[in-house]
Write a structure and sequence with these properties.
It is a single chain. This protein is of the alpha/beta class. It contains six helices and nine strands, in the order αβαβαβββββαββαα. Helices cover about 35% and strands about 20% of the residues.
Length: about 220
């Protein structure tokens, strides 16, 4: 099964290159740490000799998954590789040049904290690549994620929505082949819904900080 999956991945990459007129892939930026978004990268490195770039916090989960109590990292997926090296590790919010493009990468959070957003302008269109940090195209709030310190306002869905709005995108490119033009009206509605939901969570909690409501491992004085 693994050999068949590898063969399929390689065929898909070759088909994409042929269809888009790409001669060589020289840079790969995984959006986040989950294995379904990283499992083909070792093959891309072997096929193309490409460089891999990440924000340092995301890079650590990929290079050292054994250090993290986080679901769905690459070792979960039964591939030939449990990890791979990150060539370029950037700080949160750092910018760099790639050919004629300037790329900004920063921690985004959302479905998992170990996600970074990729902000670049392509043919005059401000484009954000956000992985799985938008939980659907409705205006309802996503279910809170109960990972350590999973406060939606500081690490989760609400945090991600706020970061997207700060960058005022013309186009969102999401994981799993989904894209959205003119996303600001939806993002603003989701932000308002999350503000209301966070206020409701605060009313339910007897803790001083909302973070303490979501993180069961905080040591109380």
């Amino acid at each position: 099964m693994l050999a068949e999956r590898t063969e399929h991945h390689r065929a898909v990459i070759n088909d994409l290159k042929r269809a888009l007129g790409i001669r060589k892939i020289d840079l790969v930026i995984p959006s986040h740490c989950h294995g379904d978004h990283t499992e083909n990268i070792p093959e891309l490195i072997e096929m193309e000799g490409c460089e891999v770039a990440c924000v340092d916090a995301v890079a650590e989960t990929i290079e050292h998954p054994e250090r993290f109590n986080v679901i769905a990292l690459l070792p979960w997926y039964g591939t030939a590789h449990d990890t791979f090296a990150i060539d370029r590790k950037l700080k949160n919010g750092e910018r760099f040049r790639w050919h004629e493009c300037e790329i900004e990468m920063f921690m985004l959070g959302g479905q998992t904290w170990y996600t970074h957003e990729i902000d670049m302008t392509i043919d005059g269109v401000r484009t954000l690549f956000i992985g799985d940090s938008l939980g659907g195209f409705g205006t309802a709030c996503e279910p809170p994620m109960c990972y350590n310190d999973g406060n939606p306002a500081t690490h989760g869905w609400a945090f991600a929505i706020d970061r997207m709005i700060e960058h005022r995108p013309d186009l969102l490119v999401c994981g799993h082949g989904i894209a959205m033009r003119d996303p600001m009206p939806l993002l603003l509605k989701k932000q308002a819904a999350w503000k209301q939901r966070l206020a409701e969570f605060a009313e339910l909690s007897f803790r001083k900080e909302l973070r303490e409501f979501f993180d069961p491992f905080i040591q109380q004085a």
